[in-house]
Amino acid sequence: MRQDTGSGLTRRRLLTLGAVGAVAAGGLYAVSHGPGLPPLPQIPGLGEPPPPELRLDPQPVDFTDLRARRRIGHAAYAYEVNGRPATYYVTEPFGARLDGWLALHRRHVGQAPDQIRSFGAWVRGSSTSWHSSGEAIDIARLRADGRDLTSLRYDQWRDAPASELRRRLRLYWGTAAGLHHEFADVLTYLFDAAHANHIHVDIGRFGPERPRLIRRSNAQVQAVQAMCRHVWERTDVETTGDFDDVTRDATSRILEQVGGPGELAESREAWQAFMVATMERAQAT
Fold first, then answer.
1. Residue 53 DSSP SS3
2. Which of 30, 165, 231, 266 is most buried, judging by how many CB atoms fall within 10 Å of its CB?
3. Domain-located, residue 236
4. Secondary structure of residue 139 in the 3-state scheme
């Protein structure tokens, strides 16, 4: 993804949040909290309502309305195509969330990258991409001292010998777990072929909401299933995108093993506990 650059940055205008989200499972609507609004509807079998989808579509902005950044946390930002340090443009809340993700990664994975390589953040004008609103980024590698700590370039190592492939998949999904801890929308190589060379994250539809399991989300459920297989060695779990009984049993047993609260689908706290435990196990095994 090519980046555009410029100068004379101004603080970005606030985006207006929509009140009504997309249709949720079972024909229910996810409605954002606010004065005079009724409580969110419950989905049978879940302890909490579905997360509110605050915005239906991106609102494209010019890069001059965004914050220019050259680092993510303590790590320098570089463009994956040429490996050179670069500037990227995002909203202040999104930049802060990226910093928080890398601090989480350092704490629970134990890696301290000095460089994050990316295919880009803001791009001009598309009304269908959260990149255009400065609320998305495509992450390709975490590096330190001139070498990869974790490569998210599945396209480059998917044909590696079995033992090397297992190692890379474990680190890939351990890193993805940290991203899923911080971002509701995370797209990996399981989503489609276009994401084989990076992991895409954004805070588009859900804004400042912290993630929890959305059982209708194929991307979230597939990621959980891949973590069960490649990090927790639960090879009975298939990456179908369906939160089936096998997946529910596996995640419940993992949470019980690590002292997490309840079942994965029951709370945001259970989701976060699962992701943190997955990050730690990925590095330890």
1. coil
2. 231
3. yes
4. strand
